[in-house]
Amino acid sequence: MVFYDGEIFNEWEGDLFVGGLASQYLAHFKVTDKGLVEQEPLLKEEGWRVRDVTVGKHDGAIYAAVEGQEVSVVRITPRMIES
Description:
Blueprint: E1 2-3, E2 16-19, E3 26-32, E4 35-38, E5 49-55, E6 62-67, E7 73-76, H1 78-82
Antiparallel strand pairs: 1-2, 2-3, 3-4, 5-6, 6-7
């Protein structure tokens, strides 16, 4: 899991991202003064088991290590989310 501290997703600053092996998606939580509020999951439609997640210090993208047929690392950028 990782707290977002990059520069390309300003609206996600401080949000928590948690990889899901069993759930097969990247969980996104907004951190509020009352706790965590789950947001729209990422990569859910892919059905990949998410093993690890980090924020790229050089570009602010979110990187997820996944188990997929031909994929091992996914780079998440605003362009990917908007599609």
